[in-house]
Amino acid sequence: MTTIGELLDALAEEFAPPGVPPSRTEGRDLIAGVLDQPRFWPSAHRDDLVDQATETEIRAAAARRAEGMPIQYAIGRAAFRHLRLRVDPRVLIPRPETELLVDLVLAAQGNGRGRVVDVGTGSGAIALALAAEGTFDEVHAIELSPDALTVARANLVAIPEEKRSRLRFHEGSLLKPVQGTFFDAVVSNPPYISVSERGEMPALVRDWEPSMALFSGDGGMWAIRALVPQAAAVLVPGGLLAMEVDSRRADLAAAAVRDDGRFTDIETRLDLTGRQRFVVARRQEQ
User: Fold this and answer.
1) Are residues 109 and 63 located together in one domain of the fold?
2) pTM above 0.85, yes or no
3) Model pLDDT, residue 19
């Protein structure tokens, strides 16, 4: 059998560009990801043996990464808050800023009662985190892509078994699948990048992640402008709307909420880099 150290050395050579001294960082992160261990674990366990099946899995993931695939897709998993989620090119890779969106909802709702709906759930990251960490009676997850919805449903195993019954999955556009149901909170990380900005994006994102989840018409604003009135129609009085938005268009997103006329307490919130990243509001009392 092969040791962790031998694999680290081999992968360092594979990933090193010609003429550049090998670095073990990429191989270390890849091995840690496949083994579901902390990122520095491989360096501290160089003498540990790896069985043949695990070595084959690691080398296959390394081959995918060498082709340019994002490391999360190469491994097939991504971290989100306390969860380890299955991901592949059918869904976006969960981002750290989206973890803050979950924090906003939990804080605003006192960790939650009643119903919450996640619009455009993708891998299920937001909905699963809310179900796992909050005390909502029901967490609904809506996704337009049937392929992405398959991934989200598979990720149900990432949360404790006793909390899985809170989840309801729906296929469809925005809030149309749940019209007639009322919610205490609507949360969404919708597509918000303009198609005209495609060329400015990093190749790792542009060439691998699903376009449906990235790009929106109307200069990146179509999904947000369509979601706002639908959210107003399903939120209970005082209900929360929380959206992740493009920092370049946060003011436009807030204006879309304001122009609807049915929301109050409209605010933009910052991400960890100090950029306007979230828009939150409350449904007016009727």
Assistant:
1) no
2) yes
3) 54
Q: Is residue 210 part of a domain?
A: yes
Q: Are residues 17 and 142 in the same domain?
A: no
Could you tell me the residue range of the domain that residue 11 belongs to?
A: 2-67
In three-state form (DSSP H/G/I as H, E/B as E, the rest C), the secondary structure along 152-197 is HHHHHHHCCHHHHHHEEEEECCCCHHHCCCCEEEEEECCCCEEHHH
Q: How many domains does the chain have?
A: 2
CB neighbours (10 Å) of residue 185? 27
Give residue 148's Cα distance to chain centre: 12
Residues in the chain: 286
**Looking at the domain assignment, is residue 88 inside a domain?**
no
Q: Where are the beta strands (DSSP E) in the chain?
A: 2-3, 49-50, 77-80, 83-86, 115-119, 138-143, 167-171, 183-188, 193-194, 215-216, 235-244, 263-270, 276-283
Q: Give the Cα separation of 83 and 127 in Å (integer).
A: 12
pLDDT, tens only, 212-225: 999 999 999 999 99
- 37: buried, middle or exposed (CB in 10 Å: 19+, 13-18, 0-12)? middle
Among candidate residues 140, 99, 98, the one with its CA nearest the CA of residue 116 = 140
**What phi and psi, each to the nearest 5 degrees, are found at residue 115?**
-115, 140
